[in-house]
């Protein structure tokens, strides 16, 4: 029986703390990865804001050109009307392209917000795991002291 207790005590002292240390190290690495991801998300956000600011004036210009083309269409003959029709189509294509870019920017912003929420959630999980690891470590040491008292 005493041999079993000593064997259990040896196992508790040698295996568990190493396992906890490995888990703690893994959690620290995960936290560092989350920090790097957040930094990348911030850069992406800045880029999206710049693109958004750049595309709005282009969209406004395309719309004003579209209106000018519509006015000219009323005053032109049939040959000019065909050219105008082509120009209007190009203006519509440009408008569609700009709208697609704006939608892409919004998608990027939403993805960044989700990444930030995920990072926050992961930070909470890491904190909970660290608390759990600490509680387990204290419990192991408490039991080890109990076994030590029993064997004395």
Could you explain the architecture of this structure?
The chain is mainly alpha-helical and 152 residues long. It has 3 helices and no strands. The protein has helices spanning 2-14, 16-75, 78-151. The model has no long low-confidence stretch (mean pLDDT 80).
Instruction: Specify the helix fraction band.
Output: over 70%
* Rg on CA atoms, Å: 33 Å
Estimate nothing, just give the exact number of structural domains: 1
- Tell me the CATH topology: Helix Hairpins
Q: Treating each run of at least 4 consecutive H or I residues as one helix, how many helices?
A: 3
Shape verdict: rod-shaped
Q: What is the architecture at the second tier of CATH?
A: Orthogonal Bundle
Strand portion, in percent?
under 5%
Keywords: Coiled coil
């Amino acid at each position: 029986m005493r041999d079993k207790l000593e064997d259990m005590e040896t196992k508790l002292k040698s295996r568990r703390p190493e396992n906890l240390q490995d888990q703690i190290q893994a959690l620290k690495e995960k936290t560092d990865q989350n920090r790097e991801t957040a930094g990348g998300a911030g850069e992406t956000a800045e880029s999206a804001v710049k693109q958004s600011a750049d595309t709005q004036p282009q969209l406004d210009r395309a719309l004003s050109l579209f209106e000018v083309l519509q006015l000219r269409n009323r005053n032109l003959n049939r040959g000019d009307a065909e050219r105008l029709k082509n120009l209007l189509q190009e203006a519509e294509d440009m408008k569609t392209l700009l709208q697609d870019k704006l939608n892409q920017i919004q998608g990027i912003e939403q993805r960044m917000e989700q990444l930030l929420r995920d990072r926050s959630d992961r930070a909470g999980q890491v904190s909970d795991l660290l608390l759990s690891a600490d509680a387990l470590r204290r419990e192991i040491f408490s039991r080890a002291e109990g076994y030590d008292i029993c064997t004395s």
